[in-house]
């Protein structure tokens, strides 16, 4: 991501949406349907939902998509074509079925914030969010917070503290904020809290100012 092309707290208004909003486009609708399938597969009655037929139909859909897939190198170029917000990342991407997807806003105090409700595909302990999923979400949110703060880098270190189990099936507030820049070192913090303010996860990230070239 080129920061110069991304909204920052210095140039954009409080409440600027920093993630790619789902559109009424076939790819977004198909991805939302795939997301529903992943969730429903975990919820459905194992013995009574004709899963043989489901497997056949889903394989037929996968065959169709694979038949129409270009070479990976070509697809990567296409994916990274253009500037601005990605549509394919695993946290906010409306084109990625494993993304919840989380929508993030930039706030005038320099932080970013979003609310998401996670369901069974993200489960770790019974009824709770998997710790790796929390870390994935916060790593990405800190990356977006860096861009909103005007400085981007790659994660070198993500120290994660799990304060209490993070509940599934209820709104979670996710935040991130760039706190300091020291040469190439960018330090960023973030958290996951319940809607009534209980701290579940907090992170401190060290990012190093470095850009991986886009595929061409
Ligand atoms: C709107 C955009 C939204 C996008 C959000 C996306 C967020 C996604 C975030 C990611 O997932 S990034 C992918 C996960 N991270 C990686 O794959 C990084 C892999 N590691 C590397 O590429 C390099 O190790 C790294 C860029 C982190 C550093 O390598 P460099 O060769 O560029 O730096 P160098 O090793 O010279 O270190 C620079 C300084 O940082 C320090 N440093 C580097 N890694 C460190 C570390 N792990 N812990 C502590 N300090 C570290 C290092 O000691 C040194 O300090 P000093 O300048 O004081 O000497």
UniProtKB/TrEMBL annotation:
| Name the UniProt record assigns to this protein | Acyl-coenzyme A thioesterase THEM4
The record, for InterPro entries, names: HotDog_dom_sf, RHA1_ro05818_N, THEM4/THEM5_acyl-CoA_thioest, Thioestr_dom
Keyword Ribosomal protein assigned to the entry: answer is no
Ranges for domain Thioesterase come to: 127-200
The subcellular localization recorded is: Cell projection, Ruffle membrane; Cytoplasm; Membrane
Chemical reaction(s) catalysed: (5Z,8Z,11Z,14Z)-eicosatetraenoyl-CoA + H2O = (5Z,8Z,11Z,14Z)-eicosatetraenoate + CoA + H(+); tetradecanoyl-CoA + H2O = tetradecanoate + CoA + H(+); dodecanoyl-CoA + H2O = dodecanoate + CoA + H(+); (9Z)-octadecenoyl-CoA + H2O = (9Z)-octadecenoate + CoA + H(+)
Which topology term describes how it sits in the membrane? Peripheral membrane protein
Species of the source? Rhodococcus ruber BKS 20-38
């Amino acid at each position: 991501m080129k920061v110069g092309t991304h909204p920052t707290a210095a140039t954009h208004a409080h409440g600027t949406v920093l993630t790619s909003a789902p559109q009424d486009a076939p790819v977004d609708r198909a991805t939302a349907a795939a997301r529903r399938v992943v969730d429903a597969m975990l919820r459905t009655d194992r013995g009574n939902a004709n899963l043989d037929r489901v497997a056949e139909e889903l394989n037929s859909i996968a065959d169709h998509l694979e038949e129409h897939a270009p070479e990976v190198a070509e697809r990567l170029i296409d994916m990274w074509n253009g500037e601005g917000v990605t549509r394919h990342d695993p946290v906010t991407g409306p084109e990625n079925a494993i993304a919840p997807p989380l929508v993030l806003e930039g706030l005038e105090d320099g932080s970013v914030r979003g609310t998401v409700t996670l369901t069974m595909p993200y489960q770790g302990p019974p009824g709770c969010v998997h710790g790796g999923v929390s870390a994935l979400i916060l790593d990405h949110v800190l990356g977006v917070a860096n861009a909103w703060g005007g400085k981007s880098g790659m994660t070198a270190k993500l120290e994660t503290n799990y304060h209490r189990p993070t509940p599934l099936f209820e709104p979670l507030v996710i935040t991130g904020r760039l706190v300091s820049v020291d040469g190439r070192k960018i330090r960023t913090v973030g958290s996951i809290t319940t809607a009534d303010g209980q701290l579940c996860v907090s992170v401190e990230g060290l990012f190093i100012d470095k850009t991986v070239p886009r595929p061409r």
